[in-house]
């Protein structure tokens, strides 16, 4: 093969690989924002992972490019802020339905206290006025050597105190790190639970048992996730299926509208 044709083939190969990788990284999904049966307009929608934003139109609809694991925030003055993580189900269906709860996003209260400063340069005092000394005036200044020299009794105590503080800080840091590991593990278990729910119960459970159309199964699973399916990742099968059955009734009612 001539060198020129070989170089062209290599360039085309890398272009295909790069385009395929990019396509796998992000997808355009279409969504709708609701509060019960009412569509919501002008909801602020931000992809916090990619720092991209948009808003819902008059029909509550929006379009956004996302990748698996992206954090999408939905916020408005009149509704509670909600953040969801993009799952494989979202990417497969390229659809998402978000339900927001009514409620004001109130700012934290700020207490403003007026500070009073006395200008003693302008205070008029009698010529013979004498200020009384209190206990603080009578105390001597601390000995700097005793506070910094480890060989002195006070310095030794200070060193012990610093050692105790350091030990306590290490214990607190270790507990915080363990807690974060447990929280991360829990999130992973919840994510895997919702992604494998279809394989766990089978497609017929959703199509024949719940009357969910085959093309809407992934959309229905997303609907269940939005309403708390992940919280059942440690529940028994009867409790989980009972939740899914109740959600199917709500989902089918919405689809009729």
Written account of the structure:
It is a single chain. The chain is globular. The model is unreliable at 16-24 and 106-113 (pLDDT under 50). The chain is built from nine helices and eight strands. Helix content is 48%, strand content 17%. The chain has three domains: 27-99, Sandwich (Immunoglobulin-like); 144-193; 196-256. The two termini are 63 Å apart.
SS summary, helix count: 9
Uncertain runs:
16-24, 106-113
Return the domain count: 3
CATH fold description of the largest domain: Immunoglobulin-like
What's a concise summary of this model?
By secondary structure, this protein is α+β, with helices and mostly antiparallel strands.
Q: Topology, pairings included?
A:
Blueprint: H1 3-25, E1 27-35, E2 38-39, E3 44-47, E4 52-55, E5 61-66, E6 71-76, E7 79-85, H2 88-93, E8 95-99, H3 135-138, H4 144-148, H5 153-195, H6 197-201, H7 203-209, H8 217-226, H9 237-256
Q: What are its keywords?
A:
257 residues; alpha+beta; Immunoglobulin-like; 4-stranded mixed sheet; 9 helices; 8 strands; globular
């Amino acid at each position: 093969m001539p060198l020129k044709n070989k170089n062209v083939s290599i360039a085309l190969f890398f272009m295909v690989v790069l385009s395929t990788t990019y396509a796998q990284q992000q997808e355009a999904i279409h969504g709708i924002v609701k509060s019960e049966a009412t569509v919501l307009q002008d909801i602020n929608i931000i992809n916090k992972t990619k720092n991209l934003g948009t808003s819902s139109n008059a029909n509550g609809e929006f379009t956004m490019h996302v990748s698996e694991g992206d954090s999408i925030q939905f916020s408005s003055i009149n509704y509670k802020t909600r953040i969801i993580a993009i799952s494989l189900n979202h990417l497969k269906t390229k659809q998402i339905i978000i339900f927001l709860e009514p409620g004001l996003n109130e700012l934290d209260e700020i207490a403003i206290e007026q500070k009073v400063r006395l200008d003693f340069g302008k205070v008029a005092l009698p010529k013979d006025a004498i200020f009384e000394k209190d206990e603080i005036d009578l105390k001597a200044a601390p000995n700097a050597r005793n506070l910094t020299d480890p060989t002195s009794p006070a310095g030794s105590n200070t060193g012990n105190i610093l050692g105790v503080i350091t030990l306590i800080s290490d214990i607190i840091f270790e507990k915080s790190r363990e807690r974060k590991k447990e929280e991360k593990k829990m999130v992973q278990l919840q994510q895997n639970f919702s992604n494998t729910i279809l394989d766990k119960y089978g497609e017929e459970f959703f199509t024949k048992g719940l009357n969910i159309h085959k093309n809407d199964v992934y959309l229905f699973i997303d609907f269940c996730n939005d309403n708390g399916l992940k919280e059942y990742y440690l529940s028994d099968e009867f409790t989980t299926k009972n939740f899914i059955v109740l959600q199917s009734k709500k989902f089918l009612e919405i689809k009729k509208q």
